[in-house]
Amino acid sequence: MLVLTFAVAIVVSFLGYIPPGNVNLTAMQISINKNIKQAVIFVTTFSILEALFTYILMRFAAWFAEKKDILQLLNWILIVVFVVLGILTWNKGAQNIPREKEFKKGASIRTGILLGIFNPIQIPFWAIAGTYLIAHNWITTKGLGLHIFALGSGIGAFTCLYLYAHFAKKIQEKFSLSSKLINHGIALVFFCLAIISLIRELSTK
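Above: the chain's sequence. Below: its structure in token form.
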């Protein structure tokens, strides 16, 4: 059962980070504006915190699922996060970034910590997914079950985010796309996500 729990955690976490969001788009941005090494540092830092918070959230998944007011507040926070990231990314596109510039890993670590802690998507995602997985006996919470699940979630998140960063850099190099163009494209996606989230939130009133 522990093997199944580990595998399910990897798959669910991987799938959770496929849709464009603040974390995977940030991984793309770091890879393009800096380099793949900095992106890996960011992804690794974030994934460690993802595993930690997944463990905590899974212990209280049912409780979080019942707190509709908390989930609603997180949705509004997410809208603000999308708008702020969109503005920052758009402004980043206006800057000229030297190709050979040496970047310190501290900035990527700080970004990973910030997004790892202030990730509004994480609570509703694991509150719903966690409750479902536990209720349908896809995972075990006994013994080392939650520890194994948390480890798997971190690996799943790392794998998906690394692929985002890797292919973003590959696409930029293959098609000779400018950092400005890609940054503005990512910013527009952030703004679109903010609008979609706002419409969805208003429609539930």
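The mean pLDDT is 82.
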